[in-house]
Write a structure and sequence with these properties.
Blueprint lengths: L3 H6 L7 E2 L2 E2 L1 E2 L10 H13 L10 H21 L7 E4 L2 H16 L5 E5 L8 H10 L2 E5 L19 E7 L11 H10 L4 E4 L11 H4 L3 E5 L10 E5 L1 H4 L12 E4 L4 E3 L13 H17 L1 H19 L5 E4 L8 E6 L4 H10 L2 E2 L1 E3 L4 H7 L4 E5 L6 H17 L1
Parallel strand pairs: 3-15, 5-6, 5-7, 7-8, 8-9
Antiparallel strand pairs: 1-2, 4-10, 9-10, 11-12, 13-14, 14-17, 16-17
Helix pairs in contact: 2-9, 3-9, 4-5, 10-13
The chain binds ligand C6P.
């Protein structure tokens, strides 16, 4: 039995008030709140273990290294990667995609080669490729979407003999659309083309199995899945990572350095220059434990029910317009009401204690496709409940009456 009341006790911030109103936190796609166990684990590491990893022979350094590498194993198991060497710690999804854009393009792409993204990408899966377009003359192609917010055509119609990579969001941060990444990967692989999946909005909400998906790269952020900020993951198949040059140079990622020649560490350290945020990796591992203690399937069922309920309730409001009504949709509801500006709606909801995100959601090309400058977005986490959606619905009604 999914006990949301008990779950909420793990997140003290949820019982605070803003403007004298109980906080209704519905901005989880931006970042989630942290359970006490994550905060305790990180505090405990700073209090009792803190030392740099992979460097010292002393006790604390070894203990910190053990925690850091145990976190890598925890992440491996969480996404069912084959090997820990395929799990690279980064600062987040953005850095993970930038790493692939720079290193993959350096190794495998030249002028005129193509990368395929979609019209619903976050800027972090657009701009890194555009930087490579400026630098090397690669071509960024984008798959169209239909009015429900689903991919309009098969990926096959975008693949040419120049396509070197497909890079797509698993779940859209604006539309909530769950893209059929497994089918896309199978089609791309038929032509020998690797696929990167941006899992920023899927990893917190559903079971991820990178071997079952057969994706070549999978990127996600700790802070969107109850872990700390500043830590993320890039999963990559060894066969690609081995051939890709380092992304940054510095300590930790080298084997031997001399003025004549420098050689690099084995995977995954080759891609982890400098002191990693080893306390955050331990925090992320604790967040994974927390997620798994509840169960990813249970979390998904709960959040899908919230999404369905939210759409059903908001649909009753006059002038309601949804952005994203895909068949497969997850934990995100974007909308506008009449001609009320999204910023006005967000600001007035905030005064009622309701935290939603407004604006372009770091997805300008998608806003252009939708023909708007921004939307209001409610996004759900494992601790949200139907009462909060009722408060949101009533809040929107109140704001609407003011206009
Ligand atoms: N989306 C949102 O409010 P970072 O910032 O690196 O942790 O994640 C970037 C990112 C990449 N892809 C997708 C699909 C995302 O949703 C995000 C982050 C947040 O929608 C902050 S802009």
């Amino acid at each position: 039995m999914y006990d949301v009341k008990k779950i909420r006790e793990d997140f003290p911030i949820l019982s605070r008030e803003v403007y004298g109103k109980p906080l209704v936190y519905l901005d989880n796609a931006a970042t989630t709140q942290k359970p006490l166990c994550v905060l305790d684990a990180m505090r405990d590491e700073y209090l009792n273990v803190n030392a740099n990893v992979h460097r010292g022979v002393h006790y604390l350094s070894q203990q910190a290294t053990d925690l850091h590498e145990a976190a890598r194993e925890k992440v491996r198991a969480f996404i069912n990667a084959e090997k820990t060497s395929e799990v690279i710690f980064t600062r987040g999804t953005t850095e993970s995609i930038n790493l692939v854009a720079q290193s993959f393009c350096e190794a495998f792409m030249k002028e005129g080669d193509e990368v395929v993204v979609t019209d619903m990408e976050h800027h972090s899966n657009i701009v890194p490729w555009q930087l490579q377009a400026q630098k090397r003359g690669i071509v960024v192609r984008h798959m169209a979407i239909n009015d429900r917010g689903e991919l309009a055509d098969s990926v096959a119609s975008y693949l040419t003999e120049r396509t070197r990579l497909v890079s797509i969001a698993h779940v859209s941060n604006v539309l909530g659309t769950v893209n059929p990444v497994k089918d896309i990967i199978a089609l791309a692989h038929e032509r020998g083309i690797p696929v990167l999946v941006d899992g920023a909005q899927s990893a917190p909400h559903m079971k991820i199995d990178v071997q079952d998906l057969d994706c070549d790269f999978f990127a996600f952020s700790g802070h969107k899945m109850y872990g700390p900020t500043g830590i993320g993951v890039l999963y990559g198949k060894e066969k690609w990572l081995e051939k890709m040059p380092p992304y940054q140079g510095g300590g930790e990622m080298i084997d031997q350095v001399s003025w004549e020649k420098t050689t690099f560490e084995q995977l995954p350290l080759k891609f982890e220059a400098g002191t990693p945020d080893y306390v955050a990796t331990h925090g992320l591992a604790t967040a994974i434990d927390y997620l798994q203690s509840i169960g990813m399937d249970q979390i998904q069922t709960h959040e899908q029910e919230l999404t369905r309920y939210c759409m059903e309730q908001l649909r009753t409001i006059e002038g309601m317009r949804f952005f994203g009504e895909a068949e497969q949709k997850d934990a995100v509801v974007s909308f506008q009401v009449g001609d009320i500006h999204h910023l006005d709606m967000g600001t007035l909801l905030d005064r009622l204690g309701i935290a939603v995100r407004t604006g372009h959601h770091c997805a300008h090309p998608l806003m252009t496709r939708l023909g708007v400058t921004g939307t209001v977005r409610a996004s759900f986490a494992l601790y949200n409940n139907k009462e909060e959606i009722d408060i949101l619905t009533e809040g929107i009604r109140r704001v609407s009456r003011m206009f």
